[in-house]
Design brief:
The complex is a heterodimer of chains A (about 450) and B (about 100). In chain A, α1 (about 20-25) packs parallel to α3. Chain A has a 10-stranded mixed sheet, sandwiched between helices. Chain A has 2 domains: about 5-115 and about 150-305, no CATH class; about 320-425, Alpha-Beta Plaits. Chain A is globular and about 75 Å long. Chain A has helices at about 20-25, 40-50, 60-75, 90-100, 120, 155-160, 175-185, 190-205, 255-265, 335-350, 390-400, 405; strands at about 5-10, 30-35, 80, 110-115, 145-150, 165-170, 235-240, 245, 275, 280, 285-290, 295-300, 300-305, 310-330, 355-360, 380-385, 410-430, 435-440. By secondary structure, chain A is α+β, with helices and mostly antiparallel strands. The longest helix of chain A has 19 residues, at about 335-350. Chain B has helices at about 30-35, 40-45, 90-95; strands spanning about 5-15, 15-25, 55-60, 65-70. Helices cover about 20% and strands about 30% of the residues of chain B. In chain B, a hairpin with a 2-residue loop joins β1 and β2. Chain B has a single domain, classed as Alpha-Beta Plaits (2-Layer Sandwich). Classes of the chains: A alpha+beta (about 450), B alpha+beta (about 100).
């Protein structure tokens, strides 16, 4: 039976590259996929593209491509990534330029786009925002990006055209991994059972190190060996969509049914109905079985027909946020920090600030229940607030800084920052209104 | 006994919704967490953060529960002012829940 091997080269836009290179060198891969887009990434990238039409792709693209191309060429491994972000065409041109500089010839590079539906949305102002129920036009002219989570179509076209490197904009994360399975095994697009199995594999791999012990490890019952040298996972898949996940021998980390189960449920709501553009995957009957150390078989994935809509992430300008922090320590530090927080709040309210948040790091910033303040040796006050302009947002940190000479005793270590808030909401777009497009460059 | 002695967990986020998986180390403890870690109890335990409803899905083959926590991310990761916008740290607090 035909099998292929797909590696996971990145679990987010800023991920480490060394494990991906190890996979290329020693993983005996057919494909290496880099998942690099979080919910908001593309909205931020769109902002960059507006400032410079040549930018708007992943910040680490040049670094990654420089290191990856020679190894991919040598090992005949195809690369698929959403590092194109808001500008797949520019990412493709940059990749071709790097190949030329490296003296690598005979590569076909593809840009998959069509996910940018901002222009269509102007006609669809009545679409309902999923999070609020309000119509899209309630955001007015603050909208800066709208990207549909496309499925495998564009990547599939590129693979059929013989592309070696495929750079996409927004596609569903599992689609990066599912597309090569459909292409290699000739799965039908209405064979939802197989698409569900492939989606399971994509979902397991899409966060890279999170399957092989990253974000899993603790020092009690979940120790992970050589976590510093964490290896990224790959899947070996056969034409039925069955197989196992593993990692390169000698790398750190571990893959067990426990690491696989945590990743399976990561960012999942109803496990029987995981909505993707290509199918509704059902993970509710999945099981993991240990075949050997760090070699885990998956079974039980399935799927159903997808909905008629693409989810679209809409990015919009949502004002500015300013932040300041200051530390207090020793006797009664929690109470002095609280007092400082009240003082800054009053001063900000006088400036007209309305939405102000006060947190005590080390006491209540992440903890959902009460701690005994007397037992806490140090605490860091953090104050943040929303503002209409960047200049106003900067006042938040400035008012924290003035605590040095205008606040309670012995505060220290002030830091401050201010930035624009780019928020994201979702709408559902009828599928016929967005279509993947592909362009190529040969080098 | 604390939940962390018999189970592990991971938090994820989407929009203004958090989810926490809860997986027992030993399958013989699955019935115990099903009985003790109810959506109501999770809502109360994390109530300072979770403002909305808590739903629970059961995955007996993986001896796991998946909790979906609505209105748990201060309006949403991309608009919240809070320090830890994703609330990825919630899983460690869930595991501190006492199980009699």
């Amino acid at each position: 039976m035909k099998t292929i091997r797909i590696g996971s080269g990145a679990g987010y836009g800023g991920d480490r590259l060394e494990p991906a290179l190890t996979l290329l060198e020693k993983g005996n891969l057919d494909y290496l996929c880099f998942e690099c887009l979080a919910e908001r990434t593309i909205a931020l990238a769109q902002k960059e593209k507006r400032a410079n039409p040549e930018k708007g792709y992943n910040h680490l693209l040049e670094y990654r491509i420089n290191e990856v191309l020679p190894l991919a060429k040598e090992t005949n491994t195809k690369i698929i990534s959403n590092m194109g972000a808001a500008n797949p065409m520019s990412a493709m041109r940059k990749t071709a330029e790097i190949a030329q500089n490296l003296g690598i010839k005979g590569l076909k590079i593809a840009a998959v786009y069509g996910d940018d539906v901002l222009d269509q949305l102007t006609d669809l102002k009545e679409l309902k925002i999923l999070e609020t129920g309000e119509p899209l036009h309630s955001l007015g002219d603050a909208i800066i990006s709208a990207n549909a989570y496309l499925g495998v179509d564009g990547i599939l076209q590129a693979l059929k055209s013989g592309a070696d490197i495929i750079l996409t904009g927004r596609v569903s994360d599992p689609a990066l991994f599912l597309a090569p399975m459909i292409y290699e095994f000739g799965w039908e697009m209405n064979d939802y059972g197989k698409l569900g199995k492939g989606t399971l594999i994509g979902h397991l791999l899409e966060c890279a190190g999170q399957l092989s012990g990253g974000y899993f490890a603790d020092l009690q019952q979940k120790f992970v060996p050589e976590l510093w040298d964490l290896g990224f996972p790959f899947a070996q898949v056969d034409e039925k969509g069955d197989g196992y996940v593993s990692k390169v021998d000698g790398t750190g980390g571990k893959i067990t049914p426990a690491t696989c189960t945590e990743q399976l449920l990561y960012e999942i709501h109803d496990p029987a109905n995981y909505l993707t553009p290509d199918c509704i995957a059902d993970f509710s009957q999945v099981e993991f079985k240990t075949l050997a150390e760090n070699k885990i078989q998956f079974q039980g994935g399935s799927g159903k027909k997808p909905t008629d809509f693409y989810k679209v992430s809409v990015g919009y300008r949502n004002g500015f946020s300013g932040e300041g922090q200051i530390s207090y320590g020793g006797y009664d530090c929690v109470n002095r920090a609280k007092w400082a927080g009240e003082i800054v709040r009053k001063r900000l309210e006088k400036w007209g600030f309305e939405e102000i948040k006060t947190e005590l790091i080390g006491y209540d910033s992440i903890t959902p229940y009460e701690a005994n303040p007397a037992s806490i040796p140090e605490v860091r006050l953090r104050i943040s607030a929303k503002a209409a302009t960047l200049d106003m947002a900067r006042k938040v940190g400035q008012e924290v800084e003035t605590l040095y000479t205008n606040g309670p005793a012995a505060g220290g270590g002030v830091s401050q920052s201010a930035e624009e808030i780019i928020s994201v909401v979702s709408v559902l777009l009828p599928k016929e209104l967005a279509q993947a497009k592909v362009e190529y460059l040969n080098c | 006994m604390l939940l962390r002695e018999i189970a592990h967990a991971r938090t994820g986020d989407k929009g203004n919704i958090s989810n926490i998986s809860l997986i027992v180390f030993d399958s013989s403890d699955f019935e115990l967490i099903k009985e003790k870690v109810t959506p109501d109890r999770v809502k109360k335990w994390l109530g300072k953060i979770v403002k909305g409803e808590v739903l629970r899905y059961e995955l007996p083959k993986l001896r796991a529960l998946n909790f979906v926590l609505y209105d748990a991310l201060d309006g949403g990761v991309t608009s919240s002012l809070q320090l830890e916008k994703h609330r990825k740290t919630l899983s460690s607090y869930l595991l501190e829940m006492p199980i009699e």
